[in-house]
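User: structure tokens for this one?
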Amino acid sequence: MSSELSLWKLIEELVSIIRLYAQLLRVIADIEEKTGKSFDDILKTELKPEGLLELSRRLPPEVFANLMTALLRISALAMRVSDPLKLSVKEKREMVAELEDISRGLETVVEKLKGLKS
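Assistant:
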């Protein structure tokens, strides 16, 4: 191969990608199995304005604000990027950083929600 990435390393990276994709599908399937609904339907019903309004009444303002911030950031990112594979390397790395930051924010929301149930 003419690039610095050898064939075995490329295949090794492909294996990692396939495993990550399988993990994603496993989590989605588990959620669908537990709820009896498709993941798409869950997102559409749970994140519709009426559901979010109800959440705003039940959650502490700080937790709800953090949740909404994360949801809006995800939505804005999805609107900007229709096909992440077509992004430049720099854009992909920026997207990774943004997604990691969003996930940290959502982890904080989850921890606060767990604390509310205790």
